[in-house]
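Morning - F0G inputs below, output right after.
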Amino acid sequence: THQWRGIIEEYRDRLPVTAETPVVTLREGGTPLVPARVLSERTGCEVHLKVEGANPTGSFKDRGMTMAITHAKEQGAQAVICASTGNTSASAAAYAVRAGMVCAVLVPQGKIALGKMGQALVYGARILQVDGNFDDCLTLARGLSEKYPVALVNSVNPYRIEGQKTASFEVVDALGDAPDIHVLPVGNAGNITAYWRGYQEYAETGDASRTPRMFGFQASGSAPIVRGEPVKDPHTIATAIRIGNPASWEFAERARDESRGLIDEVTDRQILSAYRLLASQEGVFVEPASAASVAGLLKAAEQGLVDPGQRIVCTVTGNGLKDPDWAVAGAPQPVTVPVDADAAAERLGMA
Ligand code: F0G
């Protein structure tokens, strides 16, 4: 009776469902909000991590997907489609299984992490690798959904945003009020749109006394919002956010402006440094794109843009196991020892 029931049941009165809606869930949400001691020390603030990698398929997409696939099911859809840099496709594929639907996914060829490809495959999705980037995949997916009987479950689907806004509810429910600042990585810009909506709704109903400033960070090689124009050939090691023309661009700018926040960029080097810090200092293993939020916070703090003593939440969006190459790359190879305690102790520096 104490099990978390998934975001639709937990926040039913704030979501577009009725008593008859056939809820498709893997009991997503209810993710940990973890105090980050080292980041707090570095910034002079009270920093928390919203660990979205703890969702059923390992990313925040599950919050949106339970809503989008539930709605598709309610409408009688038999197939769903998405474009993806990997996490959306993994999530769509899993929820389609629960709903008894066919799932088609379009991914940029050679540019999605192995763990995510493995998920789409094992959940039984129909995968097409597209000779193009994410933006091309999304154009193709939109076109297919207009011409054929298949529901689009990218974040341009409003039900995705509805589901994802629940992360803000959870943050406020855990902290007792909205934080001063909320920090997110930005790719297609659906998630920053969703968080902002969630915070605004809680403030409107008096469940929070205020809204936070929204800070979003793009990877430098894929930073169209920062540049003020689409990026034709986006690049970054953070493949999840390798996006040159975000679908929710205007909503992201609105979240930034209405909250007196900012949208800035972080380099791949800054992303990887935050990625290693999170794992080795905070014990939280995330995928590179997720570390963009933390890299951004550290950058903003260094620039003096963050007043000390503020309460800050960084969302870390995906599990590190999705893309383990970056954990192994550059790390020393473990040494091999015989089955001998003294030899092992010597190698461990204990002898
Ligand atoms: N972090 C991760 C791990 C992601 O997978 C994504 C987006 C983002 C951040 C950015 O979120 O797009 O709402 O601004 N991944 C999408 C996908 C594009 O296809 O999985 P956003």
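Note: Strands lie at 33-35, 46-51, 79-83, 102-108, 126-130, 151-152, 181-185, 213-219, 262-266, 311-316.

O.
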